Amino acid sequence: MTRTIDIAIVGAGIAGLWCFNRLKRAGYDVLLLEREAIGCGQTLASQGIVHSGLKYSLAGKVNETARSISAMPDRWRAALRGEGEVDLSAARTRADSQMLLIPGGILGGLTRLVAQRALGGNTRTLAASEWPDGLKASGFRGSAVFMDEPVLDVPGILRALADPYRDSVRRIPEEAAAEPLAFLRDRGIEARAVLVTAAGGNHGIARRNRHDDGLETQHRPLLQGLMRPAPFPLYAHLVGTSDKPVATVTTHETADGALVWYLGAAVAERAKEADPAEVYAAARRAFRDYLPAVDLDGIEWAVLPIDRVEGRTQGFHMPDTPTLHRAGTVLYGWPTKLTFAPMLGDMVAVEIDHLGVAPSGRATDFSDLPAVDYAVAPWDKAAWTS
């Protein structure tokens, strides 16, 4: 027996989940398929920062990425208040804002001036008395700029998006994940539109279905660093002399309550197969220069290799918008960054409207398909140094 539904989505990362929740709330009959675990891969590997674009304006460089991202914090905050196109009021933020930590001196002063004027918004230099206690004792000498960039609790965001409609989030078998359109046909599920948000799997699915004409993607690998126990909670970009921070630090908690610093930006910009010791050494140098009073004796380290996949750009730079590719009634989407999930949702909504797919108001029973669990956070499965 054929079951006709409005939309099928493949991939339960932030892109698929945001679109899924938004479409379900609008009355669409949607099935979300995931082969491994909800939020696995690039989503839980993100640092959870809702970028305002400010860090991309450093060194006098106000680029298109900065302009595109600047409206995103307000979109996310509305959702966190339960006032957006999705309801994230059941989730929380880990920090009200990421900070820019800018060293003292002439260059630091110029960088701070550029950063604060480039995009406007609610940025301001914090008085030393306003610094978090850990930063006060860290030996940092320079300026701390409040960026108005909330840092999300990503596992909570995933649950807020999936839990209300969990019966419609189901597992696609590993052996069928490369051919999700065939899987839908074999199970008698006829979707009026399909959205594929399977990150690194998108291009292969498009190619096998001859949907890849005009589609170009790129891989930008990272080797993110982790260290525990973190000496104090910190959410900061350590600003250097380019538009790429020396390190970006966010703080997370393991299942047993230990604090972890998760390290991105320049310390992580290397091949996935690189020697982890390179990451640890780069992190130690960054902390020596910026936070010299922090004691790193007894610290355990780990790395997380990430293969970021997105629409291709000239010079393989980060795209300044999400990527959405359409082949007939099948859409292939990459948000580029967690921050861009609302923007990708807008693009998907426009395409679905162009396809003439209206919300049916139905809720098909998918109980014949297996359920799928939430992914484990990277810091809870990392291989730590002894």
TrEMBL record:
GO terms for cellular component: cytoplasm. Residues 6-349 form the FAD dependent oxidoreductase domain. GO terms for molecular function: oxidoreductase activity. The keyword Oxidoreductase applies. It comes from Thalassobaculum fulvum. This is FAD dependent oxidoreductase domain-containing protein. InterPro entries: FAD-dep_OxRdtase, FAD/NAD-bd_sf. Keywords: Oxidoreductase.
